[in-house]
Amino acid sequence: MKITVHRGMEQIGGNVIEISTDKTKILLDAGLELETLEDKEVIKTEDVAETELDLEKLLSENDFSAIFISHYHADHVGLLSLAKNLPSVYMGKLAYDIFKATEEYKNNIVNFIPARYFYDGKPIVVGDIRVMPVFADHSACDAYSFIIEAENKTVVYTGDFRGNGRKNFSSYLNKMPQNVDAVICEGTNAGKDGVNLKEVELENKMADVMENANQVFVLMSALNIDRVVTVYKAANKVKRIMLQDVYMSMVTDLCGNNIPNPRTFNNVYSFTSKGMDEEEYSKYFACYGNKKMGEKLIADKKFVMCVRSSFKNYLQKLNSIKPLSGSVLIYSMWDGYKKQKIIKDFLDFVQSIGMEIVDIHTSGHADCNDLERFLEKINPEHIIPVHTVNTEWFVKKYGEEKVVRDKIFIV
Ligand SMILES: [Zn+2]
Ligand SMILES: [Zn+2]
User: Fold this and answer.
1) DSSP, residue by residue, 213-257
2) Number of domains in the chain
């Protein structure tokens, strides 16, 4: 089995990885290198040159039988929209539904329908390659790792994963094979000190902050479903209603009745931060009936509102109805985004109207402890670090012999 990392080594995100045998070729992920998206965490080491990757060209020069998408973050799926003639695409059903709905909300066209959806533990066979999707915990929901078997070899691809979310990490580890030939392992947090807070710990921290604040805003990704649950539970503890804008409402609606959403949760309401034309209104907002709220009604409630950096004008409006001084903005995203102009402007603005900013966040990627637990369990012959700027950590920990830095590797 041949592993070719077309992109994704020595950088975080933009993964494009090929697995091939004599008979069959597949791709794992087709990610974009975007540095400005709120939904994922792409950073690059300064000494790595821009690695232009033409997916169209790669597809036309090779006969790929399938593309397996681990999850809906743009640094794993975003490249697909730039190619015309795609082979069969495989993806989680909910992941695809969320990806499609959010792209269409932004007026982008989704150019594929998956040939089949993933089910945890149900293998998909393409030619002589067998791919078993394993449900993984990540800041995107419906994310998967893959166990790939071909030519009597076993390779694991982690995708993006972590052990500190609401899913049980031990049961994830139990599904993993032992003594694999190689692992293509994400290392976003490789070498970083400290242990990731668990989502349940965030919940308590948030509830403490929410307790005495005037109003509460949470700056977060609408696609981080674990975090939506955390914010809801914290708000519920301190008896505040949760407000989701139409975009987040649309996403949580797709996730089914167990995820806090305006349709089935009594204390969750939908609002819109922007003017909508009639068509948009009836598509996204009218459907919430008495679960939608205008700003005058909102101003009279004790609430927790999930926001994005584009909501400055809306907050200004709320502030003019009832002053927001003494309110709190919980910053619940990767710290690095604070350098982006739009985020910085938003944070400056909320402070200028007398709000306090409190950081409460935990990573969507495994910390070193969880990486070590995972690698101990699968006990790989070789480690191919991807989605990391710290391959050195793997080398120091597991030795030069074991860690692969070459873009092409044969197991
Ligand atoms: Zn990623
Ligand atoms: Zn991701």
Assistant:
1) -SSEEEE--TT-HHHHHHHHHHHHHTT-EEEEEHHHHHHHHHT-T
2) 2
Domain C-terminal end among 327, 343, 359: 359
Q: What is the ipTM of this complex?
A: 1.00
CA 39 to ligand 2 center in whole angstroms: 8
82 plus 64 within the same structural domain: yes
pLDDT, tens only, 174-218: 999 999 999 999 999 999 999 999 999 999 999 999 999 999 999
Query: Domain residues for 204?
Result: 199-359
Q: How far is the CA of 41 from the centre of ligand 2 (A)?
A: 7
Distance 352 CA to ligand 1 centre (A): 34
Q: Are residues 175 and 63 in the same domain?
A: yes
**Residue that finishes a domain, picked among 343, 359, 375:** 359
Domain of residue 379, CATH code: 3.60.15.10
**Measured in angstroms, how far is the CA atom of residue 141 from the centroid of ligand 2?**
9
Residue 141 CA, ligand 1 centroid: distance in Å: 13
If you ran DSSP here, which 8-state letter would residue 376 be given?
H
Give the ligand with the smallest distance to the CA of 364.
2
**What's the 257 CA to ligand 1 centre distance in angstroms?**
27
Record the tokens describing residue 5, joined without a space. Answer: 């990392």
